[in-house]
């Protein structure tokens, strides 16, 4: 079983159904991870900051220049 790198709690990830791009959250600390590899299972912490709405805003600014 995979453990949360932040709090070492077991993450409930069904590796048989996991797909790259899926986002999972730790039930203990709430940290979110994106699945970036499935064999072997690799996780990348989802960073706070820009989200899809912010990306759209940046694209609009670039068009104005």
Question: What tags apply to this protein structure?
Answer:
single chain; 65 residues; alpha+beta; 3-stranded antiparallel beta sheet; 1 helix
Number of strands: 3
Taking all residues together, what is the mean pLDDT?
81
Helical fraction equals 10-25%
The number of helices is 1
Write down the Rg: 15 Å
Strand order of the largest sheet: 1-2-3
What percent strand? Answer: 15-25%
**Poorly predicted tracts of residues:** none
Pattern of helices and strands = EEEH
Largest sheet: 3 strands, antiparallel
Describe it for me?
The termini are far apart. The protein has a three-stranded antiparallel beta sheet, with no helix packed on it. The protein has one helix at 52-64, and strands spanning 23-25, 32-38, 41-45. It is α+β, with helices and mostly antiparallel strands. It has one helix and three strands, in the order βββα.
Topology (elements, then pairings):
Layout: E1 23-25, E2 32-38, E3 41-45, H1 52-64
Antiparallel strand pairs: 1-2, 2-3
Short description:
The chain is 20% helix and 23% strand. The protein is of the alpha+beta class and 65 residues long.
